[in-house]
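Input chain follows. Return structure tokens only.
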Amino acid sequence: MYKILEAGKLAGNIYQMVVEAPRVAKHCLPGQFIIVKADEEGERIPLTICDYDREAGTITIVFMPIGASTEKFSKLQAGDSFRDFVGPLGRPSELCEEANLEETKKKKILFVAGGVGTAPIYPQMKWLHEHGVDADVIVGAKTKDLVILEDKFKSVAGNVYVTTDDGSYGRSGMVTKVIEDLVTKEGKTYDHCVAIGPMIMMKFCCLTTKKLGIPTIVSMNPIMVDGTGMCGACRVIVGDEVKFACVDGPEFDGHKIDFDMAMKRQTMYKTEEGRALLKLREGDTHHGGCGNCGGDK
């Protein structure tokens, strides 16, 4: 069992928990994720790591209830426990590899965070700051009440630009407008961008950065279901290759992803008929693991 040390709301319907998981905390790196189960009968839920403390042996997770299992998570309090807390899984962010640190230090980096996707950006920026790299970040939310982690970003970022869709706080408009304004009106230059948030946000971020000539990495965590590559849910086309977010990612070159196909596939995967059709169309490439696990049944 994995004890919940802290639990509460960050903003609106967004929850944060600090969980005692020393083995995960010892080995995890920014960009990776964990799989959580509330109890023996619970669903496996992949969640990106928001923060970690190796000395305390804790992992911080952030989530928004969208189904029965995450709704059950939201009812848990400090002192309760998770049945399973498995990780770290997935590949770490390439920016947070010490072997690449000297090259990373030469780059001007922009992070773009949207909604709950703000959470997995923080550990990357924290790691970079601890290693002498200060990056800029755009934090986007629908309204002021849904802005999260702003104070944490201010402690690790060079510049923090907050924008809300309705103009109730910070700048007004989508994160894509802020990207364009920074580059075309405010004289900023960036060599690298990392955008994490809802699929539609990442799609339009990539269209914007491609136009501006900024290489961009995105996280396909939103399409993960099983977290092991065997259910086939997170199958995505990157360039001309079939990839699976939970085993090959979750981060990929955003300019090579067919977002329209990924979003359409995500919708189809929610129904039994849709899963059967995808399995028929995709054949042996439907699964990222064994290919015969029956994960879509």
